[in-house]
Amino acid sequence: MPEEIGYLGPEGTFTEMAVMELFPGSQLKQFATIFDCLEAVDDKTVDYGVVPLENTIEGSVNMTLDYLCHQSSISIVGELTLPIRQHLLIHPNYKDRWHEIEEVHSHPHAIAQAHEFLRRNLPGAKLVHTTSTGKAAKLVKETDERVIGAIGNELAATHYGLAIASSDIHDYENNHTRFVVLTKEGKTLSKKDALVGHKVTLQITLPSDYPGALYQVLAAFAWRKLNLSKIESRPMKTGLGNYFFIIDILSEPDNVLLQGVKNELEALGTAVKVLGEYPCYSVEHKVE
Ligand SMILES: O=C(O)C(=O)C[C@]1(C(=O)O)C=C[C@@H](O)C=C1
């Protein structure tokens, strides 16, 4: 049976752009929400899932992080970073009337990425959250009795036959999103081009709150000269002030120094869960 790839749909999402780059020509299955996609990987309805993990402007996608940390035994087997260009999309019937837009629909991350543009250009418009930018574009296509807009990409504009009323409306030029490939079954990703490095992502839970606990964790990486690219705390959901840490390390697979870190941390009573050891890819061009 051909492998099936789950992703955040419908057609025209940024996640679909990532999937087209990572799994060209594969059998795809769309999910309405990130959670549904994660669950499908977990219960093996699909072989791989592709979901967003982090954006330059908006930070982490907590749904993805929390699922990986709290609920599952699925792991990260790859990462793709894509440039994110947000456009204001409108029904073609209203293409010259975008200043009259009453509502702007999009994924909360996309709305946040264009906050300044919306404040300046459409201060009276109601902002409506959708499960994805593709969903918002589809809604605009289906609504021709009112002037509404969506924030989304050029793939959605083409797919739904929408006009681009204003292009590149994201507030910061350097707008990128990291997408991760997840799997349940020890599968690996074998993309050949666009490789930019390797990472290991660890979930670290301190034994208890004592002075210098995090410092001790970081020291284990520091004296081995292991380069961290991200550290983030997330609530354990057991009480205020209880956090665990998610740490990304720029490291080749099977690095013996990392095994040393794990042994040292575990000896200190710190729990270490490996969320993934994976290749990282990056593309700057648009996927047509
Ligand atoms: O809605 C989409 O198109 C998505 O793929 C989701 C998502 C996100 O969750 O951040 C992905 C990239 C962009 O940052 C905006 C939205």
TrEMBL record:
Keywords: Amino-acid biosynthesis, Aromatic amino acid biosynthesis, Lyase, Phenylalanine biosynthesis. Its EC number is 4.2.1.51. InterPro entries: ACT-like_dom_sf (IPR045865), ACT_dom (IPR002912), Chor_mutase/pphenate_deHydtase (IPR008242), Preph_deHydtase (IPR001086), Preph_deHydtase_CS (IPR018528). It comes from the Bacteria. Residues 4-184 form the Prephenate dehydratase domain. GO terms for cellular component: cytoplasm. Pfam families: PDT. PROSITE patterns: ACT, PREPHENATE_DEHYDR_2, PREPHENATE_DEHYDR_3. It catalyses: prephenate + H(+) = 3-phenylpyruvate + CO2 + H2O. This is Prephenate dehydratase. It comes from Exobacillus caeni. The lineage of its organism: Bacteria, Bacillati, Bacillota, Bacilli, Bacillales.
